[in-house]
């Protein structure tokens, strides 16, 4: 084994699929190997960093066994191919799924970025073991995620050398990346990926040592020329490896949910009978937030008012079920890992359903915007009933020009990253001092915004409607010259009079209704 620096290869040739475990994961087994080239400028070594490009989401690792050509090969047989290999080392074939759309299969931009081919740290002489004696393992943040051996390969090393030599000359120093086993997945900024190749059954069990790469977040955006990064649900699921892996990553805050999966889950949630029926929605539409707060306070709910928020249009009113979005305080590394791409903020605004109110936890921080004109417009187009944030609103005048009601602490020109990291959606949050869960009923008017636990909705609305009718009658008496003494609140005399008039009005309504039939 040698630890000399690995010379920059003239050619880097990578195999698409070669391990049965990976082929099974992909759902296809090739009859023959296929290849792509990686540029020499993509080579890096152990201890280096790799940037996830700005505006991308799906940077994936692929731990691999790399073979280094030692003797020129042209038109060699599969039986002789291994003889042309000088050494073996570890490799990581990084790629960005977001850029697959740009390459049409060539992988130039997807897998050709600077530092996207770490090699090393040591070379093991090929003579240390036979073709079938090698093992590759990969760790992410110390957890073993890939492990396989060369005796399982669909296309052994010698066959790869022979096949390639039919078409081109392999020169000393050229590198062949021989494929990755199952377990390849997505990494995010801050993750550390380690790959090791060894020959565990050979004398001395030689090893390359661990090839260590740390993921960082790129800051330079793509220009207005060339193909932009783009992904869909199929790419997202393929990058993460499985629906289970994606679901676990979403739960851990490391991934954006697949839109189809999110839509399906949302559909399942909204297809169930809603506590906010059309009848209750209509009833609550004429009830003041102040009245609802009285009914809730009687039941021990004193902290259900979202403090400090005001509507962007005078007279605005909102009624809907809560969809929640949570921001955490800004920290550079966390913003690097969660602030880019299709982050939690964009997910929330892109998946809010008709009739829902998007409620944002911004910790009462007024010193930056939490929603701007584009996202507010997206919520309006999707039919959201409103937006509530205990933070600021950017592009305030533009947002005020939209129809959608927005309750906030007021305008602020700064972007989100000044104070916040978009963290997660559809979780319990604290907005303006009130706990809000997905599915809570949110009602807002000129007095502010209140949150009603869904199990209390029917009784609270019934009581509030009755209270509104009673207060309207009291107002009529005051307008007619009555003193508020004994009337507000009503003493026994006024109560009896009110109930008599209410019964009379009810009877009259029944007569009219019966006659109409």
UniProtKB/TrEMBL annotation:
Annotated organism of origin: Agromyces allii
CDD domains associated with the record: RraA_family
Lineage: Bacteria, Bacillati, Actinomycetota, Actinomycetes, Micrococcales
Keywords, in A-Z order: Metal-binding
Pfam families reported in the protein's UniProt record: FAA_hydrolase, RraA-like
Fumarylacetoacetase-like C-terminal domain: residues covered: 11-215
Source species, domain of life: Bacteria
Leader sequence segment: none
Keyword check for Metal-binding: yes
Protein name: Fumarylacetoacetase-like C-terminal domain-containing protein
Alphabetized InterPro entries for the sequence: Fumarylacetoacetase-like_C, Fumarylacetoacetase_C_sf, RraA/RraA-like, RraA/RraA-like_sf
PANTHER family named among the record's database cross-references: ACYLPYRUVASE (PTHR11820), FUMARYLACETOACETATE HYDROLASE FAMILY PROTEIN (AFU_ORTHOLOGUE AFUA_1G02370)-RELATED (PTHR11820:SF112)
UniProt xrefs under SUPFAM superfamilies: FAH, RraA-like
């Amino acid at each position: 084994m040698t630890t000399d620096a690995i010379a920059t290869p003239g050619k880097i040739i990578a195999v698409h699929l070669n391990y049965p475990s990976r082929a099974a994961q992909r759902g296809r087994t090739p009859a023959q190997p296929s290849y792509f080239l990686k540029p020499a400028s993509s080579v890096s070594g152990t201890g280096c960093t790799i940037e996830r490009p700005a505006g991308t989401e799906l940077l994936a690792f692929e731990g691999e066994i790399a073979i280094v050509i030692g003797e020129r090969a042209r038109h060699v047989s599969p039986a002789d191919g291994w003889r042309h290999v000088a050494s073996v080392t570890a490799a990581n074939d990084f790629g960005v799924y977001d850029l697959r759309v740009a390459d049409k299969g060539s992988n130039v931009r997807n897998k050709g970025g600077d530092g996207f081919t770490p090699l090393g740290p040591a070379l093991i002489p090929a003579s240390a073991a036979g073709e079938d004696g090698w093992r590759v393992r990969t760790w992410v943040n110390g957890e073993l995620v890939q492990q396989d051996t060369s005796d399982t390969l669909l296309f052994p090393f010698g066959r790869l050398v022979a096949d390639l030599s039919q078409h081109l000359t392999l020169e000393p120093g050229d590198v062949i990346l021989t494929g990755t086993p199952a377990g390849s997945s997505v990494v995010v900024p801050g993750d550390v990926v380690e790959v090791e190749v060894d020959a565990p059954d050979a004398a001395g069990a030689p090893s390359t040592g661990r090839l260590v790469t740390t993921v960082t977040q790129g800051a330079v955006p793509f220009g207005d020329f060339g193909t932009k990064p783009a992904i869909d649900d199929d790419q997202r699921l393929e990058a993460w490896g499985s629906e289970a892996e994606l679901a676990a990553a979403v739960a851990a805050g490391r991934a954006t949910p697949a839109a189809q999966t999110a839509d399906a889950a949302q559909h399942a949630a909204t297809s169930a009978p809603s506590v906010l029926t059309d009848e209750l929605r209509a009833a609550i539409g004429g009830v003041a937030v102040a009245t609802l707060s009285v009914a809730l306070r009687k039941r021990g709910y004193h902290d259900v008012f979202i403090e400090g928020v005001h509507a962007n249009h005078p007279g605005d009113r909102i009624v809907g079920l809560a969809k929640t979005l949570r921001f955490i305080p800004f920290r550079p590394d966390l913003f690097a890992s969660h602030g880019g791409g299709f982050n939690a903020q964009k997910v929330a605004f892109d998946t809010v359903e008709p009739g829902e109110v998007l409620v944002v936890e911004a910790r009462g921080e007024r010193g930056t915007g939490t929603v701007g004109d584009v996202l507010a417009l997206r919520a309006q187009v999707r039919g959201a009933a409103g937006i509530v944030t205990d933070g600021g609103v950017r592009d305030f005048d533009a947002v005020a020009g939209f129809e959608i009601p927005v309750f906030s602490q007021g305008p602020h020109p700064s972007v989100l990253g000044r104070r916040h990291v978009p963290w997660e959606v559809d979780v319990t949050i604290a907005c303006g001092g009130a706990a809000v869960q997905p599915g809570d009923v949110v009602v807002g008017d000129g007095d502010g915004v209140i949150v009603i636990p869904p199990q209390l909705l029917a009784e609270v609305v019934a009581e509030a409607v009755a209270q509104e009718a009673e207060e309207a009658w009291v107002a009529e008496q005051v307008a007619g010259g009555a003193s508020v003494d004994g009337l507000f609140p009503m003493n026994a005399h006024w109560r009896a009079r009110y109930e008599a008039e209410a019964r009379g009005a009810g009877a009259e309504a029944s007569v009219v209704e019966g006659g109409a039939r």
